[in-house]
UniProtKB/TrEMBL annotation:
UniProt entry tagged with the keyword Nuclease: yes
Transmembrane segments: none
Organism superkingdom: Bacteria
Keywords in alphabetical order: Endonuclease, Hydrolase, Nuclease, RNA-binding, Stress response, Toxin-antitoxin system
GO molecular function, one term: endonuclease activity
Organism of origin: Nitrococcus mobilis Nb-231
Signal peptide limits: none
Pfam families: HicA_toxin (PF07927)
Keyword flag Hydrolase: yes
Family: Belongs to the HicA mRNA interferase family.
Protein name (Swiss-Prot/TrEMBL): YcfA-like protein
């Protein structure tokens, strides 16, 4: 079952990413180490598999 956009945002915040805002349904997150991720869609919408992989990869990179 696909994860929700709100779950991905929660994971990013726990990993230390900061919400830098955005326009409309776009949200830009940045980590103090310089990594960035942009998510878009309503909070209750299902995340696309490629978006889940990107978030997981960015979180792993931030922990190294």
């Amino acid at each position: 079952m696909p994860r929700k956009i709100s779950e991905l945002i929660r994971d990013l915040k726990r990993a230390g990413f900061i919400n830098r805002g955005g326009k409309g349904s776009h949200r830009s997150f940045e980590h103090p180490k310089g990594m960035r991720v942009t998510l878009f869609g309503k909070l209750g919408a299902n995340a696309k598999p490629y978006r889940e992989r990107e978030v997981r990869r960015r979180i792993q990179e931030s922990q190294q």
